[in-house]
Amino acid sequence: MNQMTNRPARAAAMQRQENAIQQNVQRIEEAKAAAPRSALQMMAERLNVPSTVLKSTLMNTVFKGAKDDEFVALVIVANEYQLNPLTKEIYAFPAKGGGIVPVISVDGWNTIMNRHPMFDGIEFNDIPDADGNLLAIESVIYRKDRTRPIKVIEYLDECKRSTEPWKMMPARMLRHKALIQGARLAFGFSGIYDQDDAEVGDIGPGLSPGPMPMRDITPQRAPEPRQTSRPAIAHDPDTGEIVESEGETAARLDREGYAAMEGRDQSQMGEAQTTVDAAEAMIAEIVALTEVAEVNAYVRDADFSLLDDDQASAVREAAAEHSELIMRAKAAATKEGR
Question: Which of 56, 253, 216 is nearest to 138 (CA)?
Answer without folding.
Answer: 216
